[in-house]
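User: I'm putting together notes for a lab meeting next week and I want to include a structural view of one of the chains we've been expressing. I don't have a solved structure, so I'd like a prediction I can at least talk through. The sequence is below, exactly as it appears in our construct file.
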Amino acid sequence: MSHRSYPSEGSCTLDTRNLKPKLIAGSYFTDRYTKGDLEAKFIDGSKGHGSFESIKKHIAQKKK
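Assistant: Thanks for the context. Below is the predicted structure for the 64-residue chain, given as structure tokens.
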């Protein structure tokens, strides 16, 4: 029994609105008949974060 789902194919569209976006929004669909919206927010490009955990710590410190 597999603990992961099988690979699928899909597509997405992204809208940046300008050349230096702080937010990228879009929508996606897959060959599994799934679809949805996505949003990516620029956090900080000066820190050179090497992992998602590093970014989460950075965000938590900024909220203090």
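A couple of points you could mention at the meeting. The longest strand covers residues 23-30. The beta strands are 10-15, 23-30, 35-41.

User: Perfect, that's what I needed.
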